Amino acid sequence: MFKREIRKDFREKPKDEFESKLLDLARVSHTRAGGKKMRFRAVIITGNKLGKVGLGIAKGADVQLAVEKATRLSKKYLINVPIVEETIPHETYAKFGAAKILLRPQRKGRGVVAGGTVRVVCALAGIKNISSKILGSTGNKINNAKATMLALKKLKYANSRA
Questions:
Q1: I need a surface site. Which of 57, 73, 138, 160 has the fewest CB within 10 A?
Q2: Measured between alpha carbons, how far is 130 from 134 in angstroms, rounded to an integer?
Q3: What is the pLDDT of residue 141?
Q4: β-pair type (35-47, 19-32)
């Protein structure tokens, strides 16, 4: 009886502090001499809603492998986001490829005023009040996510800017 209890406890995994969101899942193909090789590309955003957020992009032979690999990568490349009174300390702008992102701090109670990709990244980072604008005309989710991550990476606390 004692051994069964130990085994039961051993199988239980510790609860993960990070929350993950599948941003994009696409079937991609590569043409080779023998024909087309199908793979799946997964884009995962991971965050703890306390100022840490990461982006992972991976390909795999099936959906599950791609998602697991992307989740592992997103946890590997986490960035710290400075949050002051539930918003960002200052306005920031970033460009990645054709994607241009502008992030602005907002007063308390305004909420996350952002579209699609930027909303997911900011929500998982733990930013509760922010305004953003995707200035580029691209609908590319990956470039928008990478541009948002670059903009968040540029942020500094107000006292360290002096």
A1: 160
A2: 13
A3: 93
A4: antiparallel
Residue whose structure tokens are 């930027």: 118
DSSP string covering 41-56:
EEEEEEE-SSSEEEEE
Return the DSSP state at 84. B
What token pair was written down for 84? 């002051």
Cα–Cα distance for residue pair 42/24, rounded to 1 Å: 6
pTM for this prediction: 0.85
82-107 confidence digits (pLDDT tens): 999 999 999 999 999 999 999 999 99
> Is the domain 19-79 a CATH 1.20.120.450 member?
no
Q: What digits encode the pLDDT tens for the residues 33-48?
A: 889 999 999 999 999 9
Phi/psi at 88 (nearest 5 deg)?
-90, 155
What is the DSSP secondary structure assignment for residue 12, as one 8-state letter?
P
Residue type, 117: T
